[in-house]
Amino acid sequence: MARTSAPVTPPTPEPVPTATLDKIGDFLKLDFRRLFVWLRAGLVWALMLAAAGGVIGAAYGLLSKQRYTVTTEILINPANLQVVENDAYSQPGQVDSQILNARSKQRILTSGNVLARVVDELGLANDPEFLDPDQTASTSGAGASGGKSDPKLIAQKSLAERVSVAADETSFVTTLAVSAETSGKAILISQAIVKAFQEELAKAEAAGAGRAAAALEGRLGQLKRDVQAAEEKVESYRRSHNLSASNGQHVSSQTMTQLNSEIGEAQSRVIATQASYDALVASGVNGANPDPAVSAALSALRDKANSLRQQIDSQSMTFGPRHPTIVRLRAEFETVSSQLRAEFSRTVGTAKANLDKANASLASLTAKMNDLKNNVFTDSESQVALRELERDAASRRAVYESFLSRARQITERERIDTTNVQVISTAVPPPGRSWPPRTPVTAGLGAFAGFALGMLLAIAMGIVRDMRQPPNRSGMAKRRGRSAGGQPHGDSL
């Protein structure tokens, strides 16, 4: 019988140390003693990195560019100063409007126009702190296709990075913070920003007032032509309808008023002359003299005739009719009587002529009044259209005068600065630099960072070493069993 040979089993190769899920899961259940072993193994490196970090931090605190930050508190009142009545800019009334107005002005504080003013005033485009040559070269290379970069823009950008504002939520106070390499330069920049801010606000208000004045001036020309055209229509209508006026009253109305007064006086004269004529005629030649002003000669002749008559009567009692005295007195009486009759006739004729003249004057004035009434009625109808033309001209004139006065007022308003901005806390030198922190602080931070980095590296190296070791199944199972039974698994070390 042939002998059967047993099969030969090839040798099992040694397992290659690889990172498996079981090994990773085993490491996730590490105890603190294993962690302490790793940290203790890397303690030297951690201390060395801590020392290096401390040296680097101290060197950074000593050698890096220092910055000093100064603050300025500014009260930005949303309401401008009320220096003129009916200002071109309305005053904000509600709280929301005031807050928006104050925040808008606060935004101007760090605007490009303000910073550009500061750059030009202080010459920051030539300051190495704000004009980095490396940055300029890189900017010029990046924008070679667009042309050479402007140093002022670079300085303005650098300045914007060193300026910040913060608003107080309970007031209209804004805090301006400015950083620079020296406290003196920071104070100078802060003062220049506040000055440029006030000038920019005043310029903005002046520009707004200028635009309003220019708009009004542009409209004034057309308004002036409209007023002239309306007034020419009024005068042309007056001339065509013969509606002349004096002292604001039409001539026809003035004439009518004057004629009424003259007619009243003429009626009074007619009544007076009629009464005088009637009294004179009724009195007769030898009547009494109720009114000596009618004729002084008639009054004198009447008095003389009465005197002679009395003498004749008294002498007739003594002498006879042929006595020379009686004859002489009668001759004188006849002469005076003849003169009296002539004077009476003349006085009556004069009174009659005066009465006729007064009646004729009254009739003439009455006729003029009747003619004038027709003209006045015609003029009244024409004045209806005239008054409409005058109202149109007056309204256009009022608008033109209002615009003209407003344009002059706003033009003068351009020269008045009504911005209500007040610096309540000026910039003062700070007690210390704002960046970097003090050298002991930077050294301590560097040492701490180096030590923490060393600890992390020690933990990482310990994990890597343990993961490269071959897996120990029995040990792992034993550790799992002891862990499940509540026993300590110190054998894992």
UniProtKB/TrEMBL annotation:
Q: Which residues form the Tyrosine-protein kinase G-rich domain?
A: 383-459
The membrane topology of this protein is:
Multi-pass membrane protein
Question: What subcellular locations does the record give?
Answer: Cell membrane
Which positions fall inside the Polysaccharide chain length determinant N-terminal domain? Answer: 30-122
List the coiled-coil residues: 213-240
Please name the GO terms that the record assigns under molecular function: protein tyrosine kinase activity
Which segments carry the region annotation Disordered?
129-150, 469-493
- What organism is listed for this UniProt entry? Mesorhizobium prunaredense
- The main location class comes to membrane
Q: Which Pfam families match?
A: GNVR, Wzz
UniProt key word Membrane? yes
Question: Ranges of Gly residues compositional bias?
Answer: 483-493
* Name of the protein this chain belongs to: Lipopolysaccharide biosynthesis protein
Residues crossing the lipid bilayer are 37-63, 443-464
Recite the UniProt keywords alphabetically. Answer: Cell membrane, Coiled coil, Membrane, Transmembrane, Transmembrane helix
Query: Is the keyword Transmembrane helix in the record?
Result: yes
Assigned GO CC terms: plasma membrane
